[in-house]
Amino acid sequence: MTGISRRTLLQAASGAAAMNVTRSFAQAKETVTFAAATFAEAGRGDKLKAWIEKFNASQDKVEVQPVAIPFSQLANTVFTQMGGGGGPDLVRFDQTDFFAALPAKRILPIDDIVDASKYTFQAPDKFLNVEGKRYGVVFELANYQLIYNPALLKGGEPPKTFPEFLAAAKEATGKGQFGYAFRATMPERSGFWQDLTNYVYGFGGNWADGKQLTLNSPKVVEAITAYKQVYDAGVIPKGADAATYRRMFWEGKIAMNIDNGGVAGIFAAQNPNLKFAAAPSPFPNRQQGLILTALSVNANTKNKKACGVFINWMLQQAAQSELQGILGAASVATPVERPKADLERSPWLGVYDAQTPYALPQLVLGFETKTLEIQQIVVEQVLKILVGNADVQKTLDEAQSLSLKRIERQ
Amino acid sequence: MRSPASHAVRMALIMVLLSAALFPIYWMVVTSLTSSANLFADRPQMLPDPSQAFNYAETFAKTSVLLWLRNSAIVAVGTMVLSILLAILPAYALSRFKFRGKGLLGFVLFATQMLPEAMLVVPLYAIFAKLLLLDTLGGLILANAAFTVPVITWILKGAIDGVPIEIEEAARIDGCSRIDIVLGIVLPVVAPTLAAASVIAFFHGWNEYVFAQTLVLSQELRTASVGLASFVGELSTPIHTVMAIGVMYTLPAVAFYLMVQRYVVAGMTAGSVKG
User: Fold this and answer.
1) Residue B233 and residue A243: Cβ atoms within 8 Å?
2) So what's the pLDDT on residue A27?
3) For an interface test with B, which of A48, A69, A236, A291 has the most B Cβ atoms less than 10 Å from its Cβ?
């Protein structure tokens, strides 16, 4: 009879014991949860998760678990969780949400886990340093430019001025195609604000001068009047949300779109055959908005050191380079030179990069922590102009007055 | 006698209402089976294109939709069972017993329905964190049941009110205990109402989003409502995937409703011809 020998039994037992050790070692990894809307993004989400997997593979003590939360729900969900004493350890915050989390003390200073002197950060990094403390690192910086489909524009050339732009948009509209697209609905409040801000900056205005709100200044009035002109021109697919009209763009149904570099990257990934190009936005002023997203540490975290391990890994040259490649025409926390081959293959990358000196965050400067509340007021008032045909000057006067009252009340 | 013309008008009206109810579901199926090129065509494609069935295969292969549906089923069935179990005795007590504060208790049960989920989610999150119920399907079932139990209690109370007290008295004379009467006599009589209440609890658990999004963090414990919403991206939304998952998300709920439909209709019409 061939019974099990003592040696076999011992080998099996030691094998099992070894497996148990391995398992408990694996279980001993500290898990850091990382919430971001980008993990759900078609064309970028899977690549970002794979990028995080590289971190996980390189570590034996820390593991990052990506948590995808829809963009429109991220702030509500994370702030609710934070209010209840929990939430993800790391959060990729939009700039307005970052400045809402800050005064509420929902994010931690990270100077003790990130030695800033080791890194050369991009200029907008300064916005994440508040009262001498660093509350996050840049995850993504994306400029805004005019993206156009030459096949849908007469002569294939982009408009250079606002009247040219409006005329080109009208000309390209018809037969199931639209000349242009932007946001103008309350459910997309955040994106609506971004689109409005591009017009305001483009017409030489600003929401504030650093000390005073300037919501009803002549330049802002001019910008909102232009926004209304486009809205009324019948050149946009009214009611279509950004996800829909961006898809329409890469399906060749929309001629022009003022959008950020991340979107351009998505167009290229979703339809490699689409021959689109980028040019400076057709406004009198070169300044445009800047998408600034920050990676911040939740004040409720019990894994701050582990968060630091990930942030420091992310700031390494190799990880930054790969991240920039995934994000499309966007920049990351530290300057990363684009490969020449990428610039030759996608000339629009260079156009976006050239916009950097003219890029401004879409915040109310000097009132950064109030941006979310002022945004709500402005967007509501602008909707009255767009949909209700309210007088631009009077409505922006009302926005200014309501915002001042809100600030004074606090 | 009804004239043929009025019959035709009634039928036409029913068809219009039916079409209005079914069209969104039909459109979801058509969109999930439409090629990208035709998605924004001048003339919308009105019929599904079977050659696009690979959208479903890709959705199965590239997403965790089956896991999400399983989690949703656990939450929905759990909410249904727990809600019914917790509602039966209070419903019986409210119907049959006279006690001080009965009116107030009934009002408090109603009052819970006046509070929106969004208002309760922060305190609930803090309580669940203390009780280690966060990130568990059990916690989600409990949170959902907190909303469905009051409704079901009132529905069952109404049904129990309609059960003649003489039946219970006869059972008591035969030596039945109170709990035997509730489980063995009252519940079988109100079974159709119980089925209707089960449907309400099941659909609440199946469709619920706010708690599922906030109280659960792990990807492997996501319900289908949260999984579906996670495709709505910051920059783009994969419409085919969303629609394909939408169809898969709808089918089990429809199947469940068809299974219990007979009882639900009976429950809704119970007592309507009394007297």
Assistant:
1) yes
2) 55
3) A69
Chain B touched by A388 (CB under 8 Å): no
Non-local CB neighbours of B139 within 8 Å, separated by 6+ positions: B128, B131, B133, B215, B216
B201 CA to centre of own chain = 5
Q: What residues does A130 pair with on adjacent strands?
A: A133
Q: What is the DSSP string of B69-107?
A: HHHHHHHHHHHHHHHHHHHHHHHHHHHH---TTHHHHHH
Lowest mean pLDDT across A364-373, B13-22, B151-160, B265-274: B265-274
Domain that holds residue B34: 1-52
Contact (Cβ atoms closer than 8 angstroms) between residue A144 and residue A259: yes
Q: Looking at the structure, tell me whether residues B35 and B108 fall in a common domain.
A: no
Distance CA A381, CA A393 (A): 11
> Distance from A7 to chain B by nearest Cα, in Å?
41
Q: Which CATH number belongs to the domain containing residue B240 in this structure?
A: 1.10.3720.10
Mean pLDDT of B233-253: 86
Contact B217, B135 (CB under 8 A): yes
pTM of the complete model beyond 0.80: no
Query: Would you say B63 and B220 are in contact if contact means Cβ atoms under 8 Å apart?
Result: no
Best residue in A79, A80, A327 for a mutation probing chain B (most B CBs within 10 Å): A80
| Residue A141 to residue A357: CA distance in whole angstroms | 12
The pLDDT assigned to A72 comes to 76
Q: How many domains does chain B have?
A: 2
Residue B28 pLDDT > 70: yes
How many angstroms separate the Cα of A382 from the Cα of each of A62, A123, A144, A379, B242?
Answer: 47, 31, 21, 5, 31
Query: Are B1 and B67 contained in the same domain?
Result: no
What pLDDT score does A24 carry? 46
What is the nearest CA distance from B238 to chain A, expressed in angstroms? 6
For residue range A247-267, what is the model confidence (pLDDT) as tens digits? Answer: 899 999 999 999 999 899 889
Asked whether residue B36 falls in the same domain as residue B161, the answer is no
Q: How far apart are CA B48 and CA B170, in angstroms?
A: 61
Chain A residues whose beta carbon lies within 8 Å of the beta carbon of residue B37: 251
Chain A residues near residue B124 by CB distance under 8 angstroms: 84
CA–CA separation, A165 vs A139, rounded Å? 33
SS3 state at A259: strand
Same domain, B99 and B31: no
B132 and B1 share one domain? no
Q: What is the pLDDT of residue A2?
A: 43
Provide the 3-class DSSP secondary structure of residue B176. Answer: coil
Give the β-pairing of A90-94 and A256-260: unpaired
Superfamily of domain A31-141+292-344: Periplasmic binding protein-like II (3.40.190.10)
Sequence length of chain A is: 410
Distance CA A179, CA A177 (A): 7
3-state secondary structure of A134: strand
* Residues of chain A found within 8 Å of residue B40, distances taken between Cβ atoms: 176, 247-248, 251, 253
Reply yes or no on domain A161-289+364-409 having CATH 1.10.10.10.
no
Over chain A (410 residues), the average pLDDT of each successive run of 10 is 49 50 58 91 85 96 91 87 92 92 94 94 91 95 96 95 97 94 91 96 96 96 98 94 90 95 89 94 96 95 96 96 90 92 92 90 90 94 97 97 87
